[in-house]
Amino acid sequence: MIVNKDEFFREVTLRICSSLQISTAFGRTFEYLRKLFPVDHMFLDIADMSLGATRRIAFATTGTEIPEEISPLPQGLLEWVRELRAPFILNASDQNYQIQSFAPFIKLKGHSDIAVPLRIEEVLIGFLILRAKEGKFTPEHVELLATVAEPFTIALANVLAHEEVVIYRDRLIDDNHFLNREIFALMGDDIIGGNSGLRNVMEMVRQVAPLNNTVLLMGETGTGKEVIANAIHFASPRKDGPFIKVNCGAIPENLIDSELFGHEKGAFTGAAGEKRGRFERATGGTVFLDEIGELPLQAQVRLLRVLQNREIERVGGDRPISVDIRVIAATHRNLESMVSENQFREDLWFRLNVFPIIVPPLRQRKEDVPALIRYFVELKSRELGIAMPPAIAPGALERLTNYGWPGNVRELENLVERELIRHQSGQLRFDSLLISVKGEEAQPLAGENGDGPLNLDAAMSLHINKVLKMTRGKIHGPGGAAELLGINPNTLRGRMSKLGIMLGRKTR
Ligand SMILES: Nc1ncnc2c1ncn2[C@@H]1O[C@H](COP(=O)(O)OP(=O)(O)OP(=O)(O)O)[C@@H](O)[C@H]1O
Ligand SMILES: [Mg+2]
């Protein structure tokens, strides 16, 4: 065997470091070593002292034999193994007592091994083993192989580090599923209005949840589309799989393809490694495409293909990858009119629109407002650390119910939070809403017809009329116009008659 030692070291090091996949790198190294050694099999084993065993993490062979993965060892042999330092030959017929007792555990019969102990700072982490027919190896083989213990040690250490990362990652994914389930358990009964204003919506959720079809959620901002998407996922057979949310409007246009579909290594500048996209990551679960109306046209084409074939293609990839996913999309925009303006593809719209669910705005389900207010007072008090949730002032609920809620449930949620921060004890009167209503209404006072400022009486008359409209003509008592305006009901009546405002209760 004539070989330049430097050249040997260089070649082995390059090959064992040539791939992040240890099996690939190991195979390449084996191909090279075969030319120099009479080797039939080559193994990379971890000495797992906590397991009391050696664990095989890579092998290469000229034959087809599949070696066992884990070989448990008796304590005495473990002690012996732990102390091995220099590379050495084990012959099956060796008379040495330890080798005699070791041989059956590693199925050495009829063979010889060269074992190279791999150590990091004195601690044994594993072995490189070359196996051949008995008697084939010479001391020169051992000597040569001893020079490459280090590169193999580094390769093995990398595998161990990677294993650890994978364990942590899996644990995180697990935790995440667990937390998702917890969140839903907390939220499960907390779809407020599920039996009243959202009864029809929840009925559709129940129908569609067990199936695999695409669902389109439509509704104004803050109506609870994401809540409903969650409800569908967690009521579906995919509930233990991932729920991956994509906010289509939040990803820069030039990255959206790689974000959704992943990319191969070097697919574009900056694509250092391969990356799985969100569709791939959602396998076994649900992808929630929020703000689907914001998806650029190019990505719409790709999405259509996913919905039709359940297949994705990574950017820079040349083979389709099948994905087992369910898609739920949501938008607050009018997709149909976007189609007619050529901003949204018609074919995609047809695909998505198979099962539309419209989440109605809060003003169309006013009956849910009191329950939502009470729910958020409870919830936000808990979140804010307020031990005793304050009471809601008489009349406030009625007033809140009649408000228009352009920001829907989210606006309501924010309002309750603000109110709680301002009045942690005492009563929640929700005056800030009144102020904002006043603010809104106050604008037109500066001349509704554009003919200069109104005089004070006219402005007052206009304002009283507006408040009366809000209270549907109610003057007296909780939620009445007098309360809203902060004056005595009799004073209000007096002023109304002076201004010529009709008395009496109107029904809107
Ligand atoms: N029926 C409901 N019961 C309890 N909480 C709700 C309900 N509907 C919505 N919410 C809460 O209101 C807030 C807004 O809901 P969500 O984010 O689902 O709205 P959205 O329709 O997705 O809004 P956008 O279009 O702005 O994204 C969330 O905090 C959500 O938890
Ligand atoms: Mg949303």
From TrEMBL:
Any Pfam family matching the protein: GAF_2
Keywords, comma-separated and alphabetical: Activator, ATP-binding, DNA-binding, Nucleotide-binding, Transcription, Transcription regulation
CDD domains referenced in this protein's UniProt entry, alphabetically: AAA
Biological source species: Geotalea uraniireducens
Protein name as catalogued: ATPase AAA
Highest taxon of source: Bacteria
Organism ancestry: Bacteria, Pseudomonadati, Thermodesulfobacteriota, Desulfuromonadia, Geobacterales
PROSITE patterns referenced in this protein's UniProt entry, alphabetically: SIGMA54_INTERACT_1, SIGMA54_INTERACT_3, SIGMA54_INTERACT_4
Annotated SMART domains: AAA, GAF
